[in-house]
Amino acid sequence: MRSLISLISSSVSSGHHFFSRLRTRRSSTLAQHALFSRRAVAMDASEEILRKALAEKQSVVEAQGNALRAMKSTGAAKPEIDAAIEALNGLKLEKASIERQLQAALSGSEGSLNREAFRQAVVNTLERRLFYIPSFKIYRGVAGLYDYGPPGCAVKSNVLAFWRQHFVLEENMLEVDCPCVTPEIVLKASGHVDKFTDLMVKDEKTGTCYRADHLLKDFCNEKLQKDLSISPEKAAELKRVLAVLDDLSAEELGAKIKEYGIIAPDTKNPLSDPYPFNLMFQTSIGPSGLSPGYMRPETAQGIFVNFKDLYYYNGNKLPFAAAQIGQAFRNEISPRQGLLRVREFTLAEIEHFVDPENKAHPKFSDVANLEFLMFPREEQMSGHAAKRIPLGEAVSRGTVNNETLGYFIGRVYLFLTRLGIDKNRLRFRQHLANEMAHYAADCWDAEIECSYGWIECVGIADRSAYDLRAHSEKSGVPLVAQEKFPEPREVEKLFINPVKKELGLAFKGNQRMVVEALEAMNEKEALGMKDTLESKGEMEFYVCTLEKNVTIKKNMVTISREIKKEHQRVFTPSVIEPSFGIGRIIFCLFEHSFYMRPSKAGDEQLNVFRFTPLVAPIKCTVFPLVQNQQYEEVAKVISQSLTTAGISHKIDITGTSIGKRYARTDELGVPFAITVDSTSSVTIRERDSKDQIRVNVERAASVVKEVTDGRTTWAVVWSTFPHHSSGSADE
Fold first, then answer.
1. With the CA atoms of 477, 480, 481 and 483 taken in that order, what torsion angle do they form, in degrees rounded to the nearest 10?
2. E strand or H helix that includes residue 73
3. Chain-centroid distance, C-alpha 587
4. 534 CA to centre of own chain
5. What was the pLDDT predicted at 9?
6. 580 in Cβ contact with 348 (< 8 Å)
7. Cβ-proximal residues to 625 (8 Å cutoff; 6+ apart), any chain
8. Which residues are registered as beta bridge partners of 453?
9. C-alpha 550: how far from its chain's center?
């Protein structure tokens, strides 16, 4: 058999790049196609070559098998048949060798299996130690709903407390708390009633529902990872489908499901055609049932509808930010991936209102020198990896649209890394052009790598003035800000006035989207339309939200420039929105903090969470070394001192060996353990190094307090106090 090197050499020299034959079908997916085709050549060179080699070897094996059968049927001599059998066995061994190489390439040698094993170890530990468990467990649970147990509640509480400190307090934000139940009219204005949907298919016999894109995604991944017999061309096709999955229409998704013969995974029954399913939980407000409402899918709308009052509360000054922490609800079709995709979850959202003509930020210099992994759309389109970029450079070059957006990207980076997220597994990915809403100026996602891959945990978007305008139009209440001029100004203004009566007659239910598109035109577009309408009477106009051209006639819009004297400028503020999925952040934090180390005897692996003191559910444990009345009294004195200092702790006076008690608390992520082994002094053990110092009983609580509050570090403490050596620390 030719070696892998010779296979690669011969295939590359042939110049066979089947990806170049792929063609796009929809203009909106050009970016995804470009990204796919550029990545594919680099990523899949060895996979493609191995698949080709396997196909060729399979053909040779089949030809040899046919020749052997022919020899037997014609009564060939035994030595000839034996030689043919030996040759066939040799070819089968060569084929098996290529299959092993291909399987290794597909799984990243160890990758996927190790990730799954690691995830299972983490989840088993989390559920066993009651960080979180499936809700309503005694009734077999409900998919997508989870309960946080005592340590999980403590971690979540600590994360949210730090979020308030880091954002609300340090940035002087206005915190609000709005109802979870939201009237339909609010979510109609925001677009959620019409567009907050996923495509769903049903088992035609049982009625079980599945997310259509998940079924197609699972089918493609299963074929690519486990079916070694598919051709390079088929593999390329499946990867192309994965690359454009989010852009497929219901018709295109249904056509692929039928083409691939995808059926219900549980029953093997046929599936219905895909159709949209609104993800909001619907309810009615009041007993009459005449006032429809929904459980909110996000917390942001409560802030937008309160803008007028918040602006007044802030002294009618911009910029200012409002923040909210609360529950959100999404009726996921097929929730999976644990805490990453659930039906009820905690969001922490910020709406920073700013003058659209001045998006500079006075504190941007505080974060400008930060350097971290960024993934601009140009790098994605060219198939390159994320790279470290100084934030100031990204803003000055225009990679990040403005200083305020850049400032919040920097603050989000500091927040996540201080929680304990590994900075090498954190990146900020810019949305591709076809991912962004037509009104958005720029969007970035803070993505954290975990066992499920790169997961979006924070979205940071410049949403322009879309939300306030939408609610102004629907409610009739102007949600605007004013800038008063020292002296009156004469200004030339462009006025775009859609004639809603004519547009309503022409476009009926689509009138609002056409009006929004007309009003969103920039000056160049508007003046171009004015000239065309005056010369031709009508023109074709592309409406993003309809994804098609419409015909605009002269009587449907008036466009003019007028000089006016103004004493103030009235405008709709833009909003920069960082939105945090708290459950996703916590799950990634669990994985980034988890590791295993051997016991002292080396006969088992012990689980450890390396939580920072900031988020650890319990900061300290107190152990009498042995069951002794005097030691227990000292332990109670220290416990009272810790309580007075506001340090969460746990006292354990059981007779279990000190090594086992250390192991139990390491598994909860407790950073420090105080061991009482005399009446005058105690030891303090640090979880990860297992180093111990000796301090006086009176100083124990204050030392722990200083380290957990961040006023000093363990390294400083280690260099200050006498060291203590004990075999128990290694058990």
1. -110
2. helix 45-73
3. 11
4. 48
5. 33
6. yes
7. 631, 658, 675, 676, 677
8. 450
9. 36
The pairing of strands 174-175 and 320-329 is parallel
Q: Please, which pLDDT band fits residue 106 given cuts at 50, 70 and 90?
A: low
DSSP lists the bridge partners of residue 275 as 200
CA–CA distance, 158 with 167 (Å, rounded to integer)? 14
User: ω before 573 within 30° of 0 (cis)?
Assistant: no
8 Å CB contact between 623 and 652: yes
pLDDT by residue (tens digit) across 464-512?
999 999 999 999 999 999 999 888 888 888 899 999 999 999 999 899 9
Which pLDDT score, from 0 to 100, does residue 105 have?
A: 67
What is the C-alpha radius of gyration for the chain, rounded to an integer number of angstroms? 32
7 has pLDDT over 50: no
Side-chain-side CA neighbours of residue 315 (13 Å)? 4
At residue 23, does pLDDT exceed 70? no
For residues 13 and 45, is the Cβ–Cβ distance under 8 A?
Answer: no
Mean pLDDT: which of 19-28, 514-523, 609-618 is highest?
Answer: 609-618
- Out of 37-46, 635-644, 671-680, least confident range: 37-46
Which tokens sit at 16? 């066979």
From CA 671, how far away is CA 725, in angstroms rounded? 18
Enclosing H/E stretch for 717: helix 714-720
Question: Among the residues of 422-559, which ranges form H helices?
Answer: 466-475, 500-507, 511-519, 523-536
Q: How many CA atoms lie within 13 A of 183 on its CB side?
A: 10
Q: 236 or 685: whose pLDDT is higher? A: 685
Give me the pLDDT at residue 726, please. 66
**Burial of 495 (C-beta count, 10 Å sphere; 0-12/13-18/19+):** exposed
Q: If you ran DSSP here, which 8-state letter would residue 203 be given? A: B
Alpha carbon distance 670, 665 (integer Å): 6
- Helix axes of 45-73 and 232-243: crossing angle, nearest 10 degrees: 140
Q: Which residues pair with 352 in a beta bridge?
A: 321, 576
Q: Which of 165, 169, 161, 164 is nearest to 615 (CA)?
A: 161
Task: Classify each residue of 146-165 as buried b or exposed e, where b means 16 or more C-beta atoms within 10 Å of its C-beta.
Answer: bebbebbebbbebbbebbee
**Which residue reads 């416990």 in tokens?**
639
> For residue 622, which of 691, 697, 688 has the smallest C-alpha distance?
697
